[in-house]
Predict the structure.
Amino acid sequence: MALLLAAAAVFLVLGRREERGSTTRFGGVRRTITDRAGTTYKYTVNVRLGVLYSLGVGFVSSFLGIGGGIIHVPLMVSALGFPVHVATATSHFVLANMAAAGSVTHIVTGAFSGGTGIHRAVALSIGVVGGAQVGASLSQRIHGATIQRLLALALAALAVRLLIGAV
């Protein structure tokens, strides 16, 4: 796991930094997104390659028992050429939908019976919603390359922590 995290950190640092521009590659789809603040992101993404990466990320993350975001975001940024802000927002969107589906599944199957589980879920939801608002606000003030470096630093620090704990 530590090696995977370290590799993701190196991939973020050494991978492509520039956002892909107007060139359309084989299988590439041109995207233009304008956020609420009026910032326009233009990039080209190879959707087929993205689907293959997502399948691989889904397998590896479930095999390792981790969330896929720590693998998916570096791939979206460095391999697929997503702007950092778009990649992190996409990851959060997927995470929110997966968490909602998981919560509904637990409610329907009765896993929250007894009250303790639902109280924890509500408490976590409040923290997640609040944290997401703070994170979204901060990300608008921080340049994409800085976010990319901070993510790489966090992944490297976690890799070192895991390596130290393994010794």
